[in-house]
Structures are given as C-alpha cells and as structure tokens.
User: Fold N-acylglucosamine 2-epimerase from Roseimicrobium gellanilyticum.
Amino acid sequence: MPLDTTRLAAFYRDALLRDCMPFWFPRCVDTQHGGFLHCVDADGSVLDTDKSVWAQGRMSWMLLTLFNTLESRLEWLAWGESGLRFLEHHGVDRSDPLGRMYFHVTREGQPIRKRRYAYSESFTAIAYAAHARATGHAVSAERARALFDLFVKWNFTPGLMPPKYTGTRPMIGMGPRMITLVTAQELATNLGDDAMLRSWRDRCIEEIEKLFVRPELQCVMENVAPDGSLVDHFDGRLLNPGHAMEAAWFIMQEGALRRESRFVELGCKMLDWMWARGWDAEHGGIFYYRDAAGKPVQEYWHDMKFWWPHDEALIATLMAWRLTGEPRYAEWHERVRLWSFEHFADAQHGEWFGYLNRDGSRSTTTKGNLWKSFFHHPRALWMCHGMLAAEAPPA
Assistant:
C-alpha cells in the first residue's frame, strides 16, 4: 500500500507541535532548581518531583535537536540549556574517580541512586553534541566527546563494570552495543564524523549481528552468553521486540548514512523477525516481552503494551519502507500508527499514556516517570515527519 506522504508528514508535525510539545512545555521546566519536572499525571500535574538524569539529558537533546533541525525557537534553546546546567551541577558523582553520573536525584539535585550502567553518560553526551551544533560552543563539543569516551570505556573495558551475573552463568546484553551505535551517530551528525566514531559503529553492528541476531530462530536475542551461545533459561530466552526494532532502525540509519546496503538489509531482517514475534494478532499492538522458544515469560508485564515500543515501531517501519519501497512496511506502519493513536493518545490533555493492558485498555494515567519523559514519543514524531517531508512533493 502506498503512503500519502504529504498528509502523513503534516499529521506527524501537528502531533509533535500541537499535541506533544504543549503538554510538556513550558510547565515541566523547573524555574526554581533548573532542569525538568517530568513525573506527571494525565493532565500534566506533578506526581513526583524527583528527576531522572536520563530524562534531563534526553529532554535537553530533544529540545536542542528540534532547534537545530525544525525551527530555531529561542525558548527551545533556553530550555535545553537549563537541562544541561542542571546536569553539569548535579548529574555527576564528584566522588567517582571516572566522573560517572547518577541515575536518580531529588528536585534540588541531591543524589538518590546510581546504576551499574552508564546510560546517563550517553544521553548527556548527545545533548552536549546537539548544543555544540546549536551554539558552536567548543566546550560542549569537548564535553560530548569526553562523555562518549567514558561511556564506551565503562561498557567495554573487561572487568571495569561490576558484572550483572556471576561466573556461573555469565551473559552480555545488546543494550550497550545499540546505544553506543546511536550515540556515535549523534556525535557524527552534530560534531562531524571521524575514524574513531566509525570504528565504534562498525564494531557494534558487527557484534549485534554476530552475537544477537539468530537466523536459526528468526529473532533478535536480548541477552546471550559472552561467546554468543544461547542460554536456555528465562533471562537467556527473553525477547524484547520494541528494543530489537529500535536497534534495527539504528542499523538501517547507518546504512542510509553510509550507503551500505548490507546494513539496510540487516536492519530490515531484524524488523521482519521481531514484528512477527511482537505484533499481537488478537488485540493489536506490540507485546513487551516474548520467549525465543515460545515458552511462557517470567515477567508478569510481558503482554502489556508500553508506549515506547510503538514509537520505535513507527520509526522502524517507516524507515524500512523509505529505504526499500516494500509495501509490507507501509502496511505495518499504518497498522501500528492507527492502533497507537487510538489507544495511547489522550484527546483531552494531549501526549500519550505510557502503559496499557494487553487489550489496549489503560493500565495507569501516568504520562511521565523516571523512564517516560519527552523523548521516545517526540523523537518518533520528529523522525517520521522528517522522513515523510523528504518524500513529499514540494507544496
């Protein structure tokens, strides 16, 4: 089926600027302590004043990226800089020899929790890179590169990060590889590409394909043994279709940027397999977890419909259609778009609810918490608009 690119480009722009953006801004900007208050209910009222460091970096990146690519609105720049100032003053653990960052802080910036993983560093790195592009500030560019270096050092230096699993049954995850890939892409886009960034992107795609993409099962594993072998236990059989679709479009994007058809083919293969695994044929929407062997999943929320896998599916299906022209991707895109906007969208207050039951009924009125903020949904709207606007004929 062909897509009406002109109509859909307008649809996504309108959803971004007239529905999603007004829900969050300016009311989420913390004018007292800086950064963003993002743990909110259906009407935008604050549920909790604590702040996710992830969210401060992601929201700053999104605002600065919109400033760089959509419209040069000075308020977007100012709000993005507010998030960066909060991160600079409160995001870093000054007692950490490596300068690692916290995950969860109070409204004022007092630390609450620090995680094993270094994703706070990656999300702050992309925010600084976008700021460097917006302002030309060399310090922001330097900070972005330093945080990326810290992120890959922490994630890929053997023995540096405390292991999640004991030596009895060690496993590694796809997450650090896919986030390294997209973080390097963002730095290349905003700061300029170089051999180091390309090397990391090549390495991560190679490891994802070699270790996590499983042709014999036609799926993308979330966790495997360090040598890539399957671990036949709950955690080892776990599939996360939304995560795999997100990784798929990261790889497709690399293929488009570098005109590498093999990357596009790999990303499409990942999307094909995980769409087949993830789409709920009975109720619609994308399952949160599946089991590689078709067995029951341990996590009780396995059949819920979270907002972000649907946002990632919007991007992945549209990108696959743009790059290949295959009709099935256009059909999948429309299927997930119509289901998502029917079930997640809030016509009264705007934005998407975060969590639905399997049948699409609302599980909670939450629209923001330590995980959900102004990131996955606006990124999908912005990217889909951009891809469709590039396809649409001039007005």
